[in-house]
Amino acid sequence: MAKRDYYDVLGVSKGASADEIKKGYRQKAKELHPDRNTDNPDAESQFKEAGEAYEVLKDAEKKAAYDRYGHAAFEGGMGGGGRPGGMGGQGDFGSAFSDIFDDLFGNMGGGRGGGQSRASRGNDLRYNLRVTLEEAFAGLQKTITVPTASSCESCNGTGAEGGSEPQTCPTCSGMGKVRAQQGFFTVERTCPTCNGMGQTIKNPCHECHGQGRVEKEKSLSVNIPAGVETGTRIRLAGEGEAGMRGGPTGDLYIFIEVREHDLFEREANHLFCRVPVSMAKAALGGDIEVPTIDGGRSRVKIPAGSQSGRQMRLRAKGMPALRGGGPGDMFIEMAVETPVNLTSKQKELLREFEELASDNNPQSSSFFKSVKSFWETMKG
């Protein structure tokens, strides 16, 4: 039976690039693999045929010979360097599929021969820190206690007892990975002897049992700058977990949460304070004292005839800016308070005031005029 054209086997054109040839083989390898085609008795031979085609076309010299002489380039005496892959015309499927396997999965573990370093970086840690609004305003120095994995002092982080050195793993030769041929697949796995570290320890440290680090708590002094808000992240380089067997230490990230305040509501760098004002003071006007976030007081003038919701601004009385710039402002929002538990005398005076104040409530007058107009329109 005559051999099919290698380009037709991979489903690519004769002028296909190396990347297109690889892509064509990858698609055919997935499509024709025997494990996926148990009901197709020809799947195995077709899979081998694709491997043979790829083994030739991926090699520049073999491809040039094939383009010139066709299949005859690899049959007795032609200048093509013998049969493709040196496997009696069947192709080097382990090599061909291994190339694709590495392309798909190899980079996850460092590719061919990448292995793993015997020393691995420690994990980063997260610490959630709650502060009051006053602390966020002023900034503070705070001591925190963090549970972490620290470098073992007994072996100086090497994991080996008595200053001895780790040995190169005899199973993987220091690569951290081993390969095994399974049918047409070349499978790469973490070395079972050294667990991917590339080295073994004959005499593990009695304190850390060969890990190079131990679990302990450590205290750290943290500088919380003025102006922090919920979600602010502070990085302490090198204060995370110690690395395995002397590897670099991870970082510690402190996430700030600012507690809600009884008096102030924060919006970016501005503060809002809702202040109750008596009905008489709102009508007549006057001065009130309001608190500020720094613990001080400010006097605010209430204009006569003020309504609920009216705001007055105190400039630069808000929160400091975390990354430069001036401080925010503080806004006083008035809440006109209706008196309760009135005495008979107070009720009598309010009824008298109500009779005399028919033209002194502009919002009421405007509202009821609009209501009257609405009713008349609906009747019409």
From TrEMBL:
UniProt xrefs under PROSITE patterns: DNAJ_1 (PS00636), DNAJ_2 (PS50076), ZF_CR (PS51188)
Record bears the keyword Flavoprotein: no
Cofactors (names): Zn(2+)
UniProt cross-references to HAMAP family, sorted A to Z: DnaJ
Domain topic, free-text comment: The J domain is necessary and sufficient to stimulate DnaK ATPase activity. Zinc center 1 plays an important role in the autonomous, DnaK-independent chaperone activity of DnaJ. Zinc center 2 is essential for interaction with DnaK and for DnaJ activity.
Protein name: Chaperone protein DnaJ
Binding site for Zn(2+) 1: 152, 155, 205, 208
UniProt cross-references to InterPro entries, sorted A to Z: DnaJ, DnaJ_C, DnaJ_domain, DnaJ_domain_CS, HSP40/DnaJ_pept-bd, HSP_DnaJ_Cys-rich_dom, HSP_DnaJ_Cys-rich_dom_sf, J_dom_sf
J domain segment(s): 5-70
Gene: dnaJ_2
